[in-house]
Task: inverse folding
């Protein structure tokens, strides 16, 4: 497989984040000199390998300057996410409409708007929630739509906090949800002692399903915040939520120290291979700098390390951007891991969880020797996207 270019930003600009639909690519970017004023662009992702000219949405996003010690911001938008939320008739409980929202996750808070609002001729204010602590910043995010016309959101911050929110579609308002003692999120918030680098939950088939499901509608019937959530911190701890309980494991405890190379967890993702009445068979994959991806099995009684998938270590991995995504294939008893790198390579590993065996591995190389990151899947178009070339380009591979 070869990688196909699809987007390139203008000279002296940088890509912060992007998201996709089966046809379109939405990108947040700014100038290198001012990452606190971000513009949204969109284009189609054609199959020809030709970079399609992009269009700009009508207004910029102004982000407040955070005073987080030790952090120099070159990008300030952490994530873009499109949600699909049903609105029901109150009397008949029948489907009234489906609302498509764009969630813009920035270091200082969250902005949400409908996709229709982005293209309407008249200006409409974004719905905004601001992180109260001006010395802290948002570092990770997960959300899930609900049948009652809301979007449930969990955030992780640089200074070790978990924030739980609810967004009401029809009123455009946010509500802070208290972390209730005894819940999984409360336990995680009490235990974490380092920056939260990633939060991953359940995904639909179009985004690389990580639980047994056959169609897009099954995701909305599940509750990722109690059934399946992985929260990783930079010090190596990965917290797994299952059946509204959380367990934590130190993914660095089996890694031999290296005085010349630092080992940090940059991301963690999980798949639910099987579900039982009171437990689930979960496989967790953590991305560790200067190592690669480590597969653990999380069963009812234990954590067991299964495989270390090493990357090429000709270059020192010193970036927090390294990430990966998992995609489950229940029919084949397999899951696929796609991982970025610091040297222009995209790694693919296929693991058979029934036979506990690595089936295959592949490497896709870019011509430019730099960081490949922000990996995402658009399953309807069978494409795997990623950012590269010093955060100026987006490419994809056809799956």
Result:
């Amino acid at each position: 497989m070869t990688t196909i270019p699809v987007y390139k930003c203008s000279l002296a600009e940088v890509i912060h984040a992007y998201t996709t639909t089966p046809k379109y690519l939405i990108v947040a970017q700014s100038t290198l000199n001012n990452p606190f004023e971000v513009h949204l662009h969109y284009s189609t992702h054609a199959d020809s390998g030709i970079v399609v000219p992009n269009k700009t949405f009508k207004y910029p996003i102004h982000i407040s300057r955070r005073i987080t010690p030790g952090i120099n911001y070159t990008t300030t938008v952490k994530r873009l996410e499109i949600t699909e939320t049903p609105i029901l008739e109150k009397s008949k409980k029948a489907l009234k409409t489906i609302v498509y929202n764009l969630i813009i996750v920035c270091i200082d808070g969250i902005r949400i708007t409908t996709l229709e609002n982005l293209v309407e001729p008249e200006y409409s204010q974004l719905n905004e929630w601001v992180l109260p602590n001006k010395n802290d910043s948002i570092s990770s995010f997960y959300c899930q739509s609900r049948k009652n016309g809301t979007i449930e959101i969990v955030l992780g911050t640089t200074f070790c906090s978990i924030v739980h929110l609810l967004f009401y579609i029809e009123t455009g308002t946010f509500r802070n949800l208290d972390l209730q003692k005894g819940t999984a999120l409360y336990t995680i918030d009490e235990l974490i002692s380092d920056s939260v680098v990633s939060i991953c939950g359940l995904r639909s088939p179009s985004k690389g399903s990580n639980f047994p499901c056959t169609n897009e509608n099954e995701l909305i019937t599940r509750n990722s915040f109690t059934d399946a959530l992985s929260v990783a911190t930079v010090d190596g701890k990965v917290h797994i939520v299952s059946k509204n309980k959380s367990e934590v494991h130190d993914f660095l405890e089996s890694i031999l120290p290296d005085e010349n190379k630092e080992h940090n967890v940059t991301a963690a993702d999980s798949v639910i291979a099987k579900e039982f009445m009171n437990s689930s068979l979960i496989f967790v994959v953590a991305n560790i700098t200067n190592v690669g991806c480590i597969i653990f099995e999380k069963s009812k009684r234990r954590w067991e390390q299964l495989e270390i998938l090493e990357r090429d270590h000709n270059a020192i991995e010193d970036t927090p951007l390294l990430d990966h995504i998992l995609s489950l294939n229940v029919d084949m008893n397999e899951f696929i891991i796609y991982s970025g790198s610091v040297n222009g390579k995209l790694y693919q590993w296929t693991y058979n969880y029934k036979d506990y065996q690595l089936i295959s591995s592949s490497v896709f190389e870019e011509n430019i020797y730099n960081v490949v990151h922000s990996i995402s899947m658009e399953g309807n178009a069978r494409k795997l996207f990623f950012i590269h070339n010093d955060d100026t380009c987006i490419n994809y591979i056809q799956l």
In short: The mean pLDDT is 90. The longest strand covers residues 77-88.
